[in-house]
Amino acid sequence: MPAEQSSQSAEEIAHLIHRVRDDIQASVKAMGATTLSVQEGRVGVSHAGESFAQILTAVRDVSSQVHRMNDSAQAMNQGTEQLVAQADEIARLAQQTALDTQEVAGASEQQTATTEEMTAAAETLAKMAERLSEQVKQFTI
């Protein structure tokens, strides 16, 4: 009777270990997909940052040209001042967006690092589960 219970307990433990290992493998696979998605997002954010930097440069150039036109066209002073104010606002918004993009890129890098750490931990757990399964097999009658 104790031998049957021991054998049955060992089978139950082996079954649980297999379920844990399967769950861990599924988690590792999902984390891999998440890592890929984050990396793709980082590339998109990087491209957006470059685009915003180009926009910022272009807006600054336009703002500079508008200021020079203002100096030479005093008669159009009122309309020109309004254009300058709008160009400055666009430059400020573009600069703020570029800064925000850099923050997002940094957060993406942190998320990727965390995901990689989680993946490594899950792989370690999977290996431990396999070793435990092998050790449990030794007790099977």
TrEMBL record:
<protein>
    <recommendedName>
        <fullName>Methyl-accepting transducer domain-containing protein</fullName>
    </recommendedName>
</protein>
<dbReference type="Pfam" id="PF00015">
    <property type="entry name" value="MCPsignal"/>
</dbReference>
<dbReference type="GO" id="GO:0016020">
    <property type="term" value="C:membrane"/>
</dbReference>
<dbReference type="InterPro" id="IPR004089">
    <property type="entry name" value="MCPsignal_dom"/>
</dbReference>
<keyword id="KW-0807">Transducer</keyword>
<feature type="domain" description="Methyl-accepting transducer">
    <location>
        <begin position="3"/>
        <end position="92"/>
    </location>
</feature>
<dbReference type="GO" id="GO:0007165">
    <property type="term" value="P:signal transduction"/>
</dbReference>
